[in-house]
Design a protein that fits this description.
The complex is a heterotrimer of chains A (136), B (138) and C (133). In chain A, the strands form 2 sheets. Chain A has a 4-stranded antiparallel beta sheet with strand order 1-8-3-6, with no helix packed on it. Chain A has 136 residues and is mainly beta. The longest helix of chain A has 4 residues, at 2-5. Chain A contains 1 helix and 8 strands. Chain C has one domain (35-131): Jelly Rolls. Chain C is built from 1 helix and 8 strands. In chain C, the strands form 2 sheets. Chain C has a 4-stranded antiparallel beta sheet, with no helix packed on it. The chains are: A mainly beta (136), B mainly beta (138), C mainly beta (133). Chains in contact: A-B, B-C. At the B-C interface, helix 1, strand 3, strand 4 and strand 9 of B face helix 1, strand 4, strand 5, strand 6 and strand 7 of C.
């Protein structure tokens, strides 16, 4: 349109140029690893909080479950979210047995987050579990 | 100028004055402080905590307002603290052993982020007690 | 004369125009938030919320009971989410002229509670006066 309007004139104002800048966000890899060993009661839930210091990947692994009358393959509920009220408000959840993991992963901004593990109704006695949390 | 013309002009002016709209600025939205009520039963020698998030910086106040047993106020001291959720608990930055009051016992200037208020029995309650804590934050 | 008539009409029109715009004088409604009367049955409680717009001393006076001479529990606290009143302090008192309980508080919402401390054997009416800054 500008060209049509100004076709007969010699432009005296600077020519506009458009520069496109692409910003690449660096996703930090986990730097800290914490192991959380705890006991889950029948019908219960437990959660563990940690602080992410830079935007990056968080990996959560349910590495083992054991106990009397507790199969090592029992499926537990696990979630990743933010502490709220007296619990952990999970935004990502999974039902999973223990394994090498990670069963939950995602990229997160700096802030306080939490992992929650809960009995989905599969426990007949308290279970000892181990979770590894790796975060930047 | 005739009376009719004057009346007409006056009517126009009056209508304009009384129907003038007051525009509310849209660039700024005022939000008041948030109130959190944390209430429950504290077993002897245990702790409980409650997490909350600040979307803007400001002063957080914590009030241990009530310690009761069977609905009757008790004078027991409990430890209250403000901090950040860490591990399986609340890592407190400030704390105090206090009895129930109507004046906040703790005030903390905090940046945006997630925090927690913790209540703990450090004195050794003789029985479970019902506590109520009010947190006011920006 | 024409100017006088015009002025009168202008004022009248302004009043009329503003009335048409929905502007009316506020009507005054008096609500007595300082006196609370109710009935306590054996084992029961009654509470009333109130708000302080500025800090100061809050005092509760149990002024009357019927039957007279019945000692009631009297307390000040904050409302829970459930609506019940979590007491910060409480006393057992019979009706009298002076405040039986007083506390310092900041601007916020509170509650006054009357409860049976184990002395109520029949429905007992009561009146308390909440004094606040």
């Amino acid at each position: 349109m500008m060209n049509v309007g100004c076709s007969g004139d010699t432009p005296t104002s600077p020519t506009d140029t458009t520069t496109t800048t692409t910003t690449t966000t660096t996703v930090a890899t986990p730097v800290y690893t914490e192991e959380w060993i705890d006991t889950l009661a029948i019908g219960g839930e437990r959660f563990y909080s940690f602080t992410v210091t830079q935007y990056g990947t968080v990996n959560v692994s349910l590495t083992s479950v054991s106990g009397q009358y507790v199969p090592s393959t029992v499926i537990l509920g696990m979630g990743l979210g933010t502490p709220a009220a007296e619990t952990c408000s999970a935004t990502s959840t999974i039902s999973t047995p223990a394994g090498s993991g990670p069963q939950l992963t995602g990229t997160y901004n700096p802030g306080v987050y939490c992992v929650i593990v809960r009995d989905l109704g599969n426990l007949f006695s308290a279970a000892r579990f181990s979770i590894t949390v790796a975060y930047p | 100028m005739t009376v009719k013309a004057i009346v007409g002009v006056a009517l126009m002016l009056a209508s304009a004055a009384c129907s003038e709209e007051i525009e509310t600025p849209t660039s700024a939205t005022a939000t008041g402080p948030a109130t959190v009520l944390f209430s429950g039963t504290l077993q002897p020698r245990t702790t409980r905590f409650y997490s909350f998030t600040l979307t803007t910086s400001g002063t957080v106040s914590a009030l241990l307002a009530s310690v009761e047993r069977n609905g009757v106020p008790a004078a027991n001291l409990l430890e209250i603290g403000i901090g950040s959720p860490a591990g399986t608990g609340c890592a407190v930055t400030i704390s105090a052993n206090v009895s129930a009051s109507l004046i906040p016992q703790l005030r903390y200037d905090a940046a945006e982020g997630t925090y927690c208020v913790r209540v703990a029995d450090t004195e050794g309650l003789s029985a479970p007690m019902t506590f109520t804590i009010r947190v006011i934050h920006p | 004369m024409r100017i006088r008539i015009a002025a009168i009409c202008w004022v009248a029109l302004l009043a009329g125009a503003c009335e048409d715009a929905g502007i009316t004088s506020p009507s005054e409604t008096t609500i007595d938030l300082n006196t609370f009367s109710s009935i306590i049955n054996p084992g029961s409680t009654a509470s009333r919320e109130f708000t302080l717009t500025s800090g100061g001393t809050v005092a509760i006076t149990l002024t009357t009971t019927a039957p007279s001479g019945v000692a009631l529990g009297l307390g000040i606290g904050i409302p829970r989410s459930s609506g019940s009143c979590a007491l910060s302090a409480g006393v057992e008192a019979v009706a009298g002229g002076a405040a039986q309980i007083a506390m310092t508080a900041e601007a916020a919402t509170y509650c006054a509670k009357v409860y049976d401390p184990g002395t109520v054997t029949a429905p007992t009416t009561f009146t308390i006066v909440i004094s606040r800054p």
